[in-house]
Write a structure and sequence with these properties.
The structure holds two protein chains of two kinds.
Chain A: H1 6-21, H2 30-34, E1 45-46, H3 48-51, E2 53-60, H4 62-83, E3 88-94, E4 97-102, H5 107-115, E5 133-139, E6 142-147, H6 149-173, E7 180-184, E8 188-194, H7 200-207, E9 212-217, H8 223-227, E10 235-240, E11 247-257, E12 261-268, E13 275-281, H9 283-295, E14 301-305, E15 308-311, E16 323-327, H10 332-344, E17 351-359, H11 361-390, H12 392-414, E18 418-419, H13 421-450, H14 455-487, H15 490-525
Parallel strand pairs in A: 1-18, 10-15
Antiparallel strand pairs in A: 2-8, 2-17, 3-4, 4-6, 5-6, 7-8, 9-11, 9-14, 10-11, 12-13, 13-16, 14-15
Chain B: H1 2-21, H2 43-63, E1 67-68, H3 70-73, E2 75-82, H4 89-97, E3 104-108, E4 114-119, H5 125-140, E5 144-152, H6 154-182, H7 185-209, E6 212-213, H8 215-245, H9 251-283, H10 289-311, H11 314-317
Parallel strand pairs in B: 1-6
Antiparallel strand pairs in B: 2-4, 2-5, 3-4
Helix pairs in contact in B: 2-7, 6-7, 6-8, 7-8, 7-10, 8-9, 8-10, 9-10
The chains are: A alpha+beta, B alpha+beta.
Chain lengths: 532, 339
Amino acid sequence: MLYFTRWRALGIILTALIVCLCAVPNFFPEAQVKTWPAWAQRRLVLGLDLQGGSYLLLEVDANYVKKEKLDQVRDDVRRSLREAKIGYTGLVTRGDTVEVRVKDTDLQAALTKLRDLSQPIGGLLGSGTQRDLDISDAGGGLIRLALSQPAMVERMRKTIEQSIQIVERRVNELGTVEPVIQRQGNDRILVQVPGLQDPTHLKELLGKTAKMEFRMVDTSVPPDQAQRGGLPPDSELLMSQSSPKVPYVVKKQVLVSGAELNDAQTGFDQRTNEPIVSFRFNSTGARKFSQATQENVGLPFAIVLDNEVISAPVIREPITGGQGQISGSFTVQSANDLAILMRAGALPAPLTVVEERTVGPGLGQDSIEKGELAAYVGSIMVIVFMLLTYRLFGVFANIAVAINVAMIFGLLSLLNATLTLPGIAGIVLTVGIAVDSNVLIYERIREELRGGRNAISAIDAGFKRALATILDSNITTFIAAAVLFYIGTGPVRGFAVTLGIGIITTVFTAFTLTRLIVAGWVRWKRPQSVPI
Amino acid sequence: MTHIVLIGLGILIAVLTVVSVFGWLPSLRIVPDDTHFDFTRFRRISFPISAALSIVAITLFFTHGLNFGIDFRGGTLLEVRAKSGTADIAAMRTTLDGLRLGEVQIQQIGGPADVLIRVAEQPGGDAAQQEAVQKVRTALGDAFEYRRVEVVGPRVSGELLAFGMLGLMLAIVSILIYLWFRFEWQFALGAMIANVHDIVLTIGFMSISQVDFDLTSIAALLTILGYSLNDTVVIYDRIREMLRRYKKMPMPQLLNESINSTLSRSIITHFTVTLALLALLLFGGHAIHSFTAVMMFGVVLVGTYTSIFIAAPILIYLGVGEHREDAKEEAPPAKKSKA
């Protein structure tokens, strides 16, 4: 137990040294570390609870996604049956299905026609045999089209992917440092923005679907008459975004959609000095817009965002360049937001904030200071106690524990782990565990000495017996840490990471470094008695 | 101030280190070398006490319940600091009560300027929580610094609770499986009883002290579990070793010897953990206050007691060591992998 070959001793020391050195970048300012080679840049990341910032968990509305898909199926059914000139009644969506009733004589023709609507599901789930619609004959001429489960899953997956892209674009527009945007589970998106103190604005930006449409205003009926029920079938009544809310009668047909926008910028109107948003269409959008404005000179059109009319200017002359500008009652902020939303594009489904945690920079700084102080005081008390209890061996223990803590920081940096306040607590507790491994060894040595062994044999037996116990007891704690890591999020996970890493370094130190130190002392002193 | 204390302590360490290296320091023995306490006989008192305490804890859990934090109950938590230096709690209460947001708790924390506001979960889903926090922010206005804002919607809170409980179960089961492999089933069962006892008592403590029960409490519970098991495993390890060595020793005596020979270690280790926790409790700030308070109770009070007075003596009832006479007496103890 006390004999190490030269190479092994060197290997142990080198390993410990390299792991400790990994912690070095944390002691230099971030800007300086950035100039180092990439392999040396790994460092601890402070959690949002320590550096301040916002954590938002967004949920995609699964019901909306389903409803959209069902509406689309219903429209497809209508179109196909019309194409095939099959008469139908009662085309409705009910629950997860679309139902339509046809005459018995048309049933087979209708079924054949509708089966064409069911598409094979591609992508990850694409086994080739699965289709997105289950079409069944419910009897009595009733045809039922149900969304299959895999189709729904696939649809959600695509929706989440698209949403993440849009959310990324919108968050990046805020100009924040290193935001994190991740998918979580089946229907959620995690957004972490370090340094953001007030997420109200961010939530406003993310809370808008930003479905933008350019549509004609229906001038055939005045809005108040439409409100009383005289609404033409191909138009709908929309409210203005600005308050007081003004009603508009707007045609359902979309001239150009937001997807055909190329760019949007804010600026100021040269005459009125009001904030405006100028935009540019892509080539297809420009063509459509040019054609529409040529046909409707003198008539008003509406710029609609999420079913609210932003502005309804009159077309004075055909706009052929594919460029335009929106002026309305904007503030600089609202103009800016609109430009961001137009540039980033529309979300495929609305997002709701289901969890929000924001920590201001003041509290974060306080937490760091308190955590540090607690760590110092705790360590010092433990160090003093160990010295008083074990004297020379207490010095050995303290050296081992100090290296242990340095190695924890090294490993955490190597993993680019996030340090949270519970994480600091985890490190303090690890000091407790690390000390325990030394206590186990030393108590065992004391016991073996009492049992009548000589110094070297007692030390040897003490290590041998204690190490088995250390391994067993640490594995149980490690299992608890692993479970915490698996179930935890954010700060709790930070705690689990430091605890888990602490256990690994503790076992390593106990098995190698502590032994090496004691072995070195034994070789040097050849002690007849153990001062323990 | 704190710097002076730290520097002072640093100097103390340096001096002590030098003194230790030269061996001028008398060795401190917290526990005398050869103790022979009859721990197992105490089981006739400790088992009924533990049973009674567990019943009390369970009763408390069902009558007083746990003070669920927003993680599990949903709702809003705001930590604000008055820019003026002192927060007028009464005025804040009037303002916030005027918003009609249901139950609003206002509590001073730390200094006179720091206030914790809890708003109960609003009916009407996730969007309603967002509206509530916006209303509070608008009502309190710019006179406060918003140091922490947490909003947990009803769906997330339910999931967090379910997930937390699942984690606790998962941890217990996986640790047991490990113990079952390393020891024998009696040991695993004994450890499980000790475990459940720890958790029940700690939950009773949480109920009576009404500390926030949130995600960090689950973390605290799991750590208590880990520590307590750590302790139990150390004693079990020794029991296993003794079982191999002394085939004829009666079980109560064997258990006593095992506990006594590890007693010094148990006490020293718990003392150091207590020191570390004490530092966290005193200086770590209120954000981890409930976490450390729970840990202090669980690790220091319950954990130590459990491994000595419950986990070890219960092995008698579980029939450990009953069939040792059947084992070959000549077998060399070191080479046997199982007791």
